[in-house]
Structure formats: C-alpha cells, structure tokens
Amino acid sequence: MKASLVLASVFTALVNTVSADGVEGTAEGFASEVTGGGTATPVYPTTTDELVSYLGDSEARVIILQQEFDFTGTEGSLTEEGCAPWGTGDACQLAINQNGWCDNYQSSATKVSVTYDAAATIGITVGSNKSIVGKGTSGVIRGKGLRIVGAENVIVQNIEITELNPSLVWGGDAITLDSSDLVWIDHVTTSLIGRQHIVLGTDADNRVTISNNKIDGTTSWSPNCDSYAYWGLYFGGSSDKITLKNNYIFHTSGRSPKVTGTTLLHAVNNYFSDINGHAFEIDSSTQVLAEGNLFESVDTLVDGQEGALFVPDSDGSACSDSLGRSCEANGYTSSGTWSGTDSSFLSGFSGYTIASAEAYSSVSGLVSTAGNSL
Ligand SMILES: *[C@@H]1O[C@H](CO)[C@@H](O)[C@H](O)[C@H]1NC(C)=O
C-alpha cells in the first residue's frame, strides 16, 4: 500500500473512533444483557415521520437524535367532555375521559370541556433491537412519548421527552413498556407530562434497568392543585425485575414509584428530593429492596405498604447470600420514616446481574449528572 493510502486509512480510522455516535456504557442490573441496535450503522432522522419510521420498523437500528422533534399539532387537537376531579382552579389538573375514567372512577367529578393535543396521548411505537440516543442535549421529543410494547432489546439514552398535555390526566405517558424484555432507559429527562413519566403495564415487562434519569415533576397543574406532579413512575407487570439506579426524582407528590403487580424492584442510589406527598407505594405481592438512596424533603416515604420491603439501614448483611455483598444504608434529610425488615425475598435476586451500590452520600451529585447530560 502507498504511504498516502496508509495515512488516509489511519486518518479515517481515527475520525471514526472519535466521532462514533451510539450508546455510552452498558446497563447495570437486570437488563445488563441489553444491546439495542448493536453495531448497526447509525441513522440520523431529520423529520418526525423519519423518526417514527426508524423507531417502528423491523430493522435493528442505532437512531441518533441531534435536534428537536416537535409532534405538537401533528395529529390535530381534540375538544370533548372531560372532568374536573379536583376542582376547576387554575393549578388543578383536569382529566380526559379516557376509557370512561370520568364516568367510572370519578363519577362525581364536575364535567368540563377539555381541549388537548392528540399526538401526545399515545407514544411512538418502538420495535425490537433499537438504540435511541441523543447527542449532547439536542435530542428532544416534544409532544409525544415512546411506546415499547411487544418489543425487546431496546436502549433509550440521553434524550428529553416533554410537553404531553401536562394540564390533563391521560394527557400522555412519556415512556410506556408492556410485554417487553431487556429495556434500558438511561440519562433521559422527562418533564411536563400529563400522566406517567414511566409506566410499566400489567403484562410481563421482564428485565428492565432505569438509570441516571431526571424525573422532573415541576408543573403548573396537579391533582393537589399545586406545582407537584402526582403521576411519577408506575411499575406494574407480572414477574418484572427492575433495577432503578442513580435517578434524580424530584418535585413530585405521588407514585414515585408505585410498585404493583408482582414486581421485584431494586431501588439503589437514587436521589428522591422535594416530594410533598409520597415516594413509594408498595402493593401486595410486590418486593422492594431500597438501599443507598438519599431522601431529602420527602414527606411520606411509603404510602400503602402491603408488599415486602427491605430497608437495610441498620444491618445490610442479610443481602450477602443473594447479592454477594452487604447492602447500603439509606440516608434521610427532613423526611418521614419507614421500616422494612422483610429480607425473605432477596433469594429472587440469585442468578441475575445485580447493580452495585455506593454509600448514599455519593448520591446528591445526581442533581447535575442525571438526565440528558451525556
Ligand atoms: C432482534 O435481534 C436478534 C438478534 O439478531 C434476533 O434474533 C431477533 O429476531 C430480533 N428481533 C426482532 C423482533 O427482529
């Protein structure tokens, strides 16, 4: 080979190494085997239609977002009868009558007319074997969420999802999982969401890792008619195994998270801050290990504790047999109290990859590192 050719290929290799766009790092915990779009050549959508097409087709894809995709108005707006379950004050959320919710569950609620953006009410379909990765802080999806339903092996990293009819219950969920397996949601920022920031449906969602996300509950409309979003994280599902690590969850008032179905949740090294209602709901038949988390100004740590909860604050040695290490104590500042002494379910961690844990004192730095900040 000529020297100039050798130089050229060395140069190309260098450029490729430096500029390769794709997933950073690997998932910890239950979804550690996720590969998403793997080594597929990256694609760079430039329109909402292209984004929808790349996410929903049956190819393995690495989809790089380097701009905002604004879906508001793309499916029109609807005006219909909804309801006002918490009154009609300016800061109160109203509700869309989805599946008869206003009639069946809030039947005494005042009926009111609601107008909303149609695109936000149902997320973009995401197929199997996809990586969706934002560049810097540029990857924003406005006015529509992501729907990973009946799909497996998906990575969503370093994007922001915002503005899903935040004034309305059923206005839209940011990320929905159902009938899935191996999903990693990492460094995602969610804000101004009408319904759930992340929701795992009632079917099996299997192995899921939710890490380094910024769940921003700051809003102008809520059930409490204040600025604290109620509908944070909803972890349903049959036999789901969820690692929730290094997330910054703040300014919410409920469901942060709600754990239901038969979910096993490992909540480790999260920063729960400024929650003026409750953080956890732990329904019967669920199992929650909460270690190394920092709770700051969280009124109620758990509301409705019917499932199994292990909080290894005084002695973490019960984790050794199943996790291969001791568990970390949680830290509390200006927060409520709880106790969780049931370690009998920890054997359910055996055979899985378990996320590591650091002392809770390391967690407050998530204020600046969580969300789409890569
Ligand atoms: C995802 O990729 C794997 C490995 O290449 C393949 O076996 C599987 O069929 C793919 N799934 C779909 C739904 O395309």
Explain this structure.
Helices cover 10% and strands 35% of the residues. It is mainly beta and 374 residues long. The protein has a single domain, classed as Single-stranded right-handed beta-helix, Pectin lyase-like (Pectate Lyase C-like). The protein has a 15-stranded parallel β-sheet that branches. The chain is globular, with a radius of gyration of 21 Å. It starts with a helix and ends in a 5-residue tail after the last helix. One of its GO terms (cellular component) is extracellular region. It is found in: Secreted. Residues 95-301 form the Pectate lyase domain.
SSE diagram, text form:
Elements (H helix, E strand, L loop, with lengths): L2 H17 L28 H9 L4 E5 L2 E3 L6 E8 L9 E2 L5 H4 L5 E8 L6 E2 L4 E5 L5 E3 L3 E4 L2 E6 L2 E5 L3 E2 L5 E4 L2 E6 L2 E5 L4 E3 L6 E5 L2 E3 L16 E3 L5 E5 L2 E3 L7 E2 L4 E5 L2 E12 L4 E5 L2 E12 L2 E3 L9 H4 L7 E3 L32 H4 L5
Parallel strand pairs: 1-7, 2-8, 4-12, 6-9, 7-10, 8-11, 9-13, 10-14, 11-15, 13-16, 14-17, 15-18, 16-19, 17-20, 18-21, 19-22, 20-23, 21-24, 22-24, 23-25, 24-26, 25-27, 26-28
Antiparallel strand pairs: 3-5
The chain binds 2-acetamido-2-deoxy-beta-D-glucopyranose.
